[in-house]
Design a protein that fits this description.
The protein is of the alpha+beta class and 280 residues long. The protein has a domain of 158 residues. Helix content is 30%, strand content 13%. Strands 1-2-3-4 form a four-stranded antiparallel sheet. Strands 5-6-9 form a three-stranded antiparallel sheet. Strands 7-8 form a two-stranded antiparallel sheet.
Length: 280
Amino acid sequence: MTEDEAQLLYLDLLFPAFTIALDTHFDITMDSLLGLFRATPPPPSDSARFTNPVQRPMHLCGPRTIYNSVKNLRKRVDFYEEITIFSWPSRGGVIVLERPCPADFDFLDLDRLDPPKKCHATRQEEDEFAQRLLLLGGKWWDSPARHALFTEPDHLQDEEEMAAQPEPTARENAWIGAAWPSSGGLVVAEWPTNMYPGGRMDDVAPDDVSRLFLCITMDEKAAVLMDRLGGKMWKGVEEYEGKAFIGSWGTHRGEVGELQQTWPKDGESQNLGGKALPGQ
């Protein structure tokens, strides 16, 4: 057999196999295309659908609220995103100190590594702690809901509730830094910020405010407030005149409304101990 005859025989054997493969591929393609136009089979009857139903876990979602007034009314420190210290005075409302430094924890006699989870068990102890928190520039909010309105993100807020609330006051807007140096007196730095329902524009706060987080002692904190943040020296609480709630313990009745009571009416015990407050 010559070379030309061998090539012709090879083509004769190859061509039928190629034809069969091409026909098979064409049939599969046509079936796929025709399937697009075929009627969808009817769903099973109700009896067949519920004869053996598949058990799936069910989750019930409650109503969306802006703030639960009975939630977290006893917590002392919050570590979510940034550190926040709370106090719950018997006169009502909540006093909040945001972003405290190590010197603040020592001033409040709190363990920095293992602070208490809840507030004091008696009104007297908690009131003493609340007064010390005010001395550090803590803000006295009328209620936990008022505080949450300006600190929780927008997506957790109720738009109608936000629109009905009064605008933040100058004292609610103010950024406050306070220190009690060992040499005596009081150092306070104040900065206006722009709070709004759902948050605050932190870019209007002092650029060097993060230096306060490094302060271990009140002397270090006072130096940072004076040298870098425009702080001012005062002789004591009685002479202080500014936007902080320092010195407002005996006179404050509410910022935009009445103070919301967060303590129960019955069942408090008494504590005769106490710690002297600086400047008093």
